[in-house]
Fold this protein.
Amino acid sequence: MENKHRWGILGTGNAANVLAAAIKTSVTGILSGVASRDEKSAIAFAQKHGVKKYFSSYEKLLKDSDIDIVCIALPHNLHAEWSIKSAEAKKHILCEKPCAINYESAVAVIEAVKKNDVFYMEGFMYRCHKQTKKLIELLQNKVIGDVRLIEASFCYHAFFDSTQIESRKISGGGGILDVGCYPISMARLIASIENGKDSILPLEIQGMAHIGYDSEYDEWAIANMRFQGDILAQVSTGVSIEHRNDLRIFGSKGSIYIPSPWVPGGAGPGITSIFLKQTGVKEIQEVHIETAVGLYQQEIDTVGMNIHNRQTKEMSWQDTLVNMATMAMWRKSVGVRSISDSYVLK
């Protein structure tokens, strides 16, 4: 592209660093600015990534006419606020998941995006990877017949001190919002394909969770879901437990296994695999997917190539809203109290 989109990043944490590296290698974008409320952090980030402009506030970056797209890499509780402010500043938006900390705030985000006619995508990077696109193709071609059961998990085991726990409470803490959104989005994607629809909500959801005494949020959780067509899904998540972090799909004529559905290939370029087992056949077929660029560059270029559409088929506005609604159902079923968003409720 002769005229690349100019990116600005809000935040300087781990996600911001990963996305900055991807923007610099993308074919559609260049990294033009970074903002942090800590000016020293912004300066260090700019020096590390060779960014010419750094800002000591998010507002200053949004006012800069040299920024086309804003990447929001902030704590969960700031996603809705800064998505709305970015939309009002007429900036296109890539926002780290989750879109917001509750469904009502997610609705406010999408309304702001529509009103201001800007691009928006929630950052489910795995949806942009060639591996996921190959999975969609296999399901559409009915290689395992009709899907009957889905199993998906995404967990990690972190050790938080009391200060970190309090911070996570404010920012939305808990496994369901943090990484449970991934298996929920995948189960919904598969069920949507099977039902020939763009984005569907489960008909019912039954959840269980361990709610931490000190944290007061879901430290690990599971959910059983039923979709149209009697498709059943079992998903699990957690921030204090290790798990397989894989995907298994069982159909009327076989099964599919993906060992790394969320960060295919460890985020870098290379070869990933989907394992296909046909009913009555002993041999397991390994389907290879080769990528020349990493996971996050695929995400950045998906954004860049769809600015004119204002959204992507990989993660549409409707898909974001339905995913947030599903997580609200899950959280309610396990007894996690609803998190208010003071900015949106003002």
